[in-house]
Specification:
alpha+beta, 5-stranded mixed sheet, 99 residues
């Protein structure tokens, strides 16, 4: 799901079942923030490049078995993203417990 950053092209995505139009050059985390959807983060800082080191920002993508890190995964056309559910809550809790 990682892809090269592309800017200037608007694409359709879904976040938690709601439709949004976003710049293809955005990460899932950036798109979610524009949509006023909070995805928790620990290692992401606006002044630094994403490192994907903490794992707190994991999300689900429809038809993808892996949980992806929202801070470094770029949106793709027609991507359907789930930011909160029981499994994601438990994974985030486990990551915090390990930290």
């Amino acid at each position: 799901m990682y892809m090269e950053k592309v800017t200037g092209k608007m694409i359709d995505i879904k976040i938690n079942g709601k439709d949004f139009k976003v710049d293809q050059g955005m990460t899932i985390l950036e798109a979610a923030r524009l949509a006023h959807v909070k995805i928790p983060t620990l290692c992401k800082h606006d002044d630094l490049p994403a490192t994907a080191s903490c794992g707190i920002c994991v999300v689900k993508i429809k038809n993808n078995r892996k949980l992806l890190r929202a801070c470094c995964t770029y949106v793709e056309p027609n991507m359907e993203i789930t930011t909160h559910d029981g499994e994601l809550y438990q994974v985030r809790k486990n990551v915090l417990d390990l930290i």
